[in-house]
Design goal:
Two copies of one chain form a homodimer. Chain A has two domains: 69 residues, Winged helix-like DNA-binding domain superfamily/Winged helix DNA-binding domain (Arc Repressor Mutant, subunit A); 190 residues, Rossmann fold (3-Layer(aba) Sandwich). In chain A, helix 1 packs across helix 3 and helix 2 packs across helix 3. In chain A, strands 6-5-9-10-11-12 form a six-stranded mixed beta sheet, with helices on both faces. A two-stranded antiparallel sheet of chain A has the order 1-2. Chain A is of the alpha/beta class and 280 residues long. In chain A, a hairpin with a 4-residue loop joins strand 11 and strand 12. Chain A is globular and about 65 Å long. Chain A is 32% helix and 27% strand. The interface between A and B is large, with 57 and 56 residues.
């Protein structure tokens, strides 16, 4: 079957969006659409421009025999701001306040469209960091990890608090939870990581960073490398943060349980430096 | 700015793929691209045909003043078969066999591209079932639930084994785990569901269906309705299954631990009846 240009454009868009960070050869497209490579190149030119204009991402051309095209999901600065502020507006609602100054976020972590946007925003900050794996701790971090993973096209591994028979042999470490200073355990299936992998740690909430510190210890056990740390919400506190470099979307400044007030500000997404990636 | 047809096609494709099961008015597109509604209609005609030819899904037109277009992700029969058989090929690998006859599936549940395909396959079977919410149990079901949820555009809620402070007030029930016949507890945040919602239950693995039965009891507590049950793998067993109607992608017939053999067959996706949806 011979495809028209208009049909090719629709189908190529779908194919690229479904396969981020994946090298696709011009031959693949040229065979799929029974079209000359020169026509495919022109099509890709149109896609490239439209993707950039709509802040969808970049199409990177890799030349040579093993070359092709790669779609890199990237969100523009405007939209990142919008996502951060819609997160703040949601979190500011006073009925989210739970005893102990905790915030109810479970509904947000169950919303697929919201997660997709959050995931793309975080993936934008790490698009060139050669992340191999995203690691999180059960349970709340899992949807965030997967939302990022889809845009970086890397697997997710989940650290648990307890060992389960369906995980096979595991490696377990003890760590000190940051704020409560309790000794806790983390367990990871032995076959879930290979040594030398570069790992992005993520979670929904970070206070002192004890959980992150625990995951870092696990990385050492597996001879893996820290590729970055990203959280939705970091909380203000007096102690020193255990993790040096992390990315946060929102900062929880203070919680006033009596007057049911939640004080939030932008996280360090734009201020932590070394991150001019959104100026596409 | 005035968009060319070619640019509109690329951007509309992206917009629709990112917003499945969402009604989008022609006015939205016509404003976004500064184009006449007649041009937009022609564009949508091209998208519609291409989506159907590439087994991406259906574009449904809703006419009238409150009308517009809706993208329904649907996978064709061929691709469903392919997804099921690639799952079987993966699961058949003997190094997945764990003591007690369990299968290691954690790597698959961490693979974003695989999950996306699985999610779309399951969403295809429930596209017209008016599902409001997808419910699963922590931990392994979470990525599957989210993969389905994105294609149905509905939220995910996660049932836990233990209550956590960050969940707020919870409802808890006891149930009998199917195979081990132990009494277990399930906990769900009170504000996670509204009464009257239609719920799709999902999990990675089902034997007798005790966990599903537990979730069904939770639905009753919340005055919610069962919209369906979907699992990746069902296991052969002697007792009667506690759930009447469920969908499975793969059936685990038998495990021979001594010879390290895993016997699999297709699940009931195509045979359970009432499901001719993939004949688009």
């Amino acid at each position: 079957m011979k495809w028209k240009r208009s049909e090719r454009l629709v189908d190529m868009t779908r194919h690229l969006l479904e396969n981020p960070h994946t090298l696709i050869s011009l031959t693949f497209f040229s065979n799929r659409y029974s079209a000359a490579k020169s026509s495919i190149s022109e099509d890709l030119g149109i896609l490239k421009e439209t993707f950039e204009e709509s802040s969808t991402g970049r199409l990177v051309t890799i030349s040579g025999a093993a070359g092709g095209i790669k779609y890199i999901p990237l969100v523009g600065r405007e939209e990142i701001k919008e996502v951060i502020h819609s997160l703040m507006n949601e979190l500011r609602k006073s009925d989210r306040l739970l005893p102990g100054g905790y915030l109810y976020m479970t509904d947000l972590l169950g919303n697929p469209r919201f997660l997709d946007r959050i995931g793309k925003v975080i993936a934008t900050a790490f698009f060139d960091k050669e992340i191999d794996v995203i690691m999180t701790v059960a349970t709340k971090g899992i949807p965030i990890a997967h939302a990022i993973a889809r845009h970086l096209n890397v697997p997710v591994i989940v650290v648990r608090r307890d060992s389960k028979v369906t995980e096979g042999p595991t490696v377990s470490i003890n760590y000190v939870s940051g704020s409560a200073r309790r000794i806790q355990t983390m367990v990871l299936s032995k076959r879930s990581m290979q040594s030398g992998q570069k790992v992005l740690l993520t979670d929904d909430f970070m206070k002192v960073g004890g959980t992150m510190q625990g995951m870092k210890s696990l990385l050492e056990e597996f001879n893996c490398e820290l590729g970055g740390v990203a959280v939705l919400v970091e909380a203000e506190h007096l102690e020193e943060v255990l993790v040096d470099d992390y990315l946060s979307l929102v900062k929880l400044r203070a919680v006033d349980e009596k007057h049911r007030k939640i004080e939030l500000e932008e996280g360090n997404y734009f201020t932590r430096g070394g991150n001019e990636l959104w100026n596409m």
